[in-house]
Amino acid sequence: MEEGRRAHTAIVGWACTTLCLVSYAAAFSQGASLSACSDMMPRHLRVQLHSSSNNYVTVHTNMSFFFPGDKVPVTVRSTRDYMGFMLQARKVSNNEIAGTFIFLPPGSKLLTCFEDGDTVTHSDKSLKRNLSFVWKAPDQPIGDIKFFISIVQSYFVYWAKIESAVVAQGGQN
């Protein structure tokens, strides 16, 4: 009798663990969660952070400065495939998220961290490599910005907050 109870408990435990793992993994296959907004860190099980200085991803723009209201093209290039990402523009002065994304490639979607469309994340777990976006600066002055991207190569390996060069706000005194 005791042996049957142990077997039943083991099966129920295995089923619960499997269902929890599947639902947890499936949740992140459709984009980053809002809990990642401030630190841009994935919330996967047993995920391993890799040094952002030793990555294979670059984020850049062909503009060295912008004016309020400008549309800024942003390109993410990679030498390897990855599944997920989170992209934001942040003010250099205080690290606050700024502006909105107005053009997204397939396989991505807008996320509202602090205001509508201020963050972009993946919408599926298809493999990605080179992506292009357009970011719109707010109509009021915000100062210099940098773009930051976190990349998830797999459920267990990621790079956090890879940064672009500074994009200066034009017309400042």
Automatic annotation (TrEMBL):
Cellular component annotations (GO), alphabetically ordered: membrane
PANTHER family associated with the record: CYTOCHROME B561/FERRIC REDUCTASE TRANSMEMBRANE, REELIN DOMAIN-CONTAINING PROTEIN 1
Keyword match Ribosomal protein: no
Biological source species: Thryothorus ludovicianus (Carolina wren)
Name the UniProt record assigns to this protein: RELD1 protein
Superkingdom to which the source organism belongs: Eukaryota
Stored Gene3D superfamilies: Reeler domain
Coiled coil: none
Keywords: Signal
InterPro entries per UniProt: Ferric-chelate_Red/DefProt, Reeler_dom, Reeler_sf
Keyword rRNA-binding attached: no
PROSITE patterns referenced in this protein's UniProt entry, alphabetically: REELIN (PS51019)
Signal peptide: 1-27
Reelin domain sequence ranges: 22-173
